[in-house]
Design brief:
Strand order of the largest sheet of chain A: 6-7-8-3-9-10
Largest interface: A-B, 27 and 25 residues
Number of helices of chain A: 7
Helix content of chain B: 40-55%
Radius of gyration of chain B: 30 Å
Number of strands of chain A: 10
CATH superfamily of chain A: P-loop containing nucleotide triphosphate hydrolases
Largest sheet of chain B: 10 strands, mixed
Distance between the termini of chain B: 33 Å
Shape of chain A: globular
Structural class of chain A: alpha/beta
Distance between the termini of chain A: 11 Å
CATH topology of chain A: Rossmann fold
Number of helices of chain B: 12
Helix content of chain A: 25-40%
Number of strands of chain B: 14
Order of helices and strands of chain B: HHEHEEEEHEEHEEEHEHEHHHEEHH
Strand content of chain B: 15-25%
Structural class of chain B: alpha+beta
Oligomer: heterodimer
Number of domains of chain A: 1
Chain lengths: ~230, ~400
């Protein structure tokens, strides 16, 4: 296995709901290698999305360490995490999370607003990202004018436009029919194989998980088994 | 630079998404508009009143009252005293005669056109010099009263606000019957709310003998005032107060101005509390409706600051729209509206028009923006503090 991009060490994550505490992750250890396509599977409440959020710097562990690309995410401030996410992470969401008032191209351009790039360069890169996902001809369409599959492609274009270190996808095919979901998975595989992007994907769907290079199963906050 | 770019982008997205939330946005706009309309309309009363009281107040006209009187109503001067006043240094002369008018000021009952209830209207007895002291007084219909006759001329504002003052009408006041022979304008000033007649006819009708209540004198120049005043106050035969007419009228409008000012601000403040809560509600629901969008932006790396600014900007935008609508409403409904109110110093009615001035409109807009800022602040902070993870879970 190649060098580890992400290292999760003895991570506990506890949520509090009033007086009740819920242990979501229980001393979890994990390494994600640079360039791999990892699928995280498991039943609802097993901690998949929580683990993804920790890897993406959206949440902090209650204890333990999460180090991604050399950055200890548990020690970073909110501001530092925001900057780190902008630079290193591309998120793909189950419900696409496109901004309805922006065209596809403007949605894709969003992460680049956090860079020093000039407008012309931002637009050029946004169009390139849309070309990669096969939606160059839909650049000026609004999300409401796109199908679910097309929206998710725009979401993926937005995730790759800033050339991130890792792509984190949370149920990327969960809201799509099988055929369209298959196309989205083809795209993620292509990004992994052709463009060398590290992908971590949370999914319920075994067929989706089969497209990954490695599958991990979570159950009650610990890794249950691993398969290559 | 990047922070500015982030802020501009998020703010623009916010404003663009307003049409999707037009219902709650409208509630906030209506709230702001209501407060501004009331605020501006109420304060336009004070503006209008002050305009009337200040329009004719000339710097080079002096008013002489008995010492200690705060208005013409409580003053009293003998014929001899008025003659001494007219001969004082500093009084302008034409053909060797002083330009001055010794005057009598009584109150008559006239029904208001709007309600039919009796109101106190000033009936001023003047000398011929009154028309020289106040050159702005101009007969617009009929003619001047003749000396020694029971004839009156009526200010146009009085004629429009009070019933029965039409040309040719005969009216019973004091111990005489009076005929309206003319209507006059007075440059929009307070005298337009008065009725004038010959002082020497008014004296017996109200059993005033040969007394007067005030002397209005035209001065050679505004600078002559001090010499005029010094001469009168040093004269042992007199015990008088000497003021410029402009200062006298300004003092008269002070009570109403402060009354209306306090009232207007109080009503507006109470309404503003309601409108601010309305704005809070609107912005909280806006933030809730956009929770996932905001969380998405934060996930992509946008900072909390631009989110705060964008929510505030939306709230301020709604306040701006509400303020403009409210100002326009107040202007349309109140500006120029004719009414009359009590001048508490003379216990008589002053007719005036409500005035919505640019300064009032700017003040109303400022008020709206303040409400917008307060209404947007807490929702903005909540939006920025909303944990990204829970925001992303919203559907």
């Amino acid at each position: 296995m190649s060098e580890a991009l992400a290292r999760v060490e003895a991570v506990h994550k506890v949520y509090r709901r009033g007086a009740e505490t819920v242990d979501v992750l229980n001393g979890l250890d994990l390494e994600v290698a640079t360039g791999e396509f990892l699928a995280l599977m498991g039943p609802s409440g097993s901690g998949k999305t929580t683990l993804l959020n920790l890897l993406g710097g959206l949440d902090r562990p209650t204890s333990g360490r999460v180090v991604v690309g050399g950055q200890d995410l548990g020690r970073a401030s909110g501001r530092e995490l925001a900057r780190w996410r902008a630079r290193h992470v591309g998120f793909v969401f189950q419900f696409y999370n496109l901004l309805p008032v922006l065209t596809a191209e403007r949605n894709v351009e969003l992460p680049l607003l956090l860079t020093r790039l000039k407008r012309s360069e931002r637009r050029r890169r946004a169009r390139t990202a849309l070309e990669i996902v096969g939606l160059a001809d839909r650049a000026s369409h609004y999300p409401s004018q796109l199908s679910g599959g097309q929206e998710q492609r725009v979401g993926i274009a937005r995730a790759i436009v800033n050339d991130p270190t890792v792509i984190l996808a949370d149920e990327p095919t969960g809201d799509l029919d099988r055929a369209t979901g298959g196309e989205i998975l083809d795209l993620l595989v292509a990004l992994n194989e052709r463009h060398g992007k590290t992908v971590v994907m949370v999914t319920h769907d075994p067929l989706a998980a089969d497209r990954a290079t490695r599958v991990l199963h979570l159950d009650k906050g610990v890794l249950a088994e691993a398969s290559e | 630079m990047r922070w500015m770019r982030q802020t501009a982008a998020v703010t623009l997205m916010n404003l663009k998404s307003l049409p999707r939330r037009w219902g709650s946005a409208l509630v906030a706009v209506v709230g702001f508009a209501g407060v501004v309309a009331v605020f501006v309309a109420v304060l336009s009363i004070a503006e209008g009143f002050e305009q009337v009281m200040g329009t004719v107040g000339s710097e080079s006209t002096a008013l002489v009252l008995r010492g200690g009187s705060d208005s013409e109503m409580s003053s009293g001067l003998t014929l001899e005293q008025t003659r001494i006043v007219k001969q004082a240094p500093g009084v302008r002369r034409e053909s060797g005669e002083p330009v001055a008018s010794a005057e009598l000021f009584v109150i008559v009952d006239v029904p208001k056109r709007s309600t039919g209830t009796a109101a106190n209207v000033p009936l001023r007895g003047v000398e011929p010099g009154a028309f020289l002291v106040r050159p702005e007084v101009e007969i617009v219909e009929g003619r001047r009263f003749r000396e020694g006759r029971n004839e009156v001329i009526v200010g146009t504002a009085a004629a429009s606000q009070f019933a029965g003052l039409e040309l040719g009408n005969r009216l019973r006041w004091g111990e005489a019957t009076w005929e309206v022979v003319g209507l006059f304008e007075a440059g929009g000033g307070v005298h337009e709310s008065e009725i004038w007649t010959d002082a020497r006819v008014l004296q017996p009708a109200y059993r005033r003998g040969a007394t007067f209540q005030s002397v209005y004198t035209a001065l050679e120049s505004p600078e002559s005032f001090q010499a005029f005043k010094d001469a009168l106050t040093a004269d042992p035969r007199l015990e008088v107060d000497v003021t410029r007419e402009s200062e006298y009228l300004a003092a008269q409008s002070r009570v109403l101005r402060s009354l209306v000012g306090v009232l207007g601000n109080l009503i507006a403040a109470l309404m503003a509390v309601g409108a601010t809560f309305g704005a809070l509600n609107t912005m909280y629901s806006a933030v809730a409706a956009r929770g996932r969008e905001i969380a998405t932006l934060r996930a992509l790396g946008f900072q909390g600051g631009p989110v705060v600014v964008s929510v505030l900007a939306e709230s301020l935008f709604l306040a701006l729209v509400g303020g403009l609508v409210g100002g326009a409403l107040a202007w349309a409904a109140a500006n120029g509206y004719q009414t009359a109110t009590m001048n508490w110093q003379t216990f008589s009615q002053v007719a005036f028009s409500l005035r919505v001035t640019p300064a009032l409109l700017v003040g109303g807009l400022g008020y709206a923006l303040l409400m917008g800022l307060l209404g947007g602040l807490f929702p903005a902070v909540r939006a920025a503090r909303l944990p990204v993870v829970s925001g992303l879970r919203q559907r």
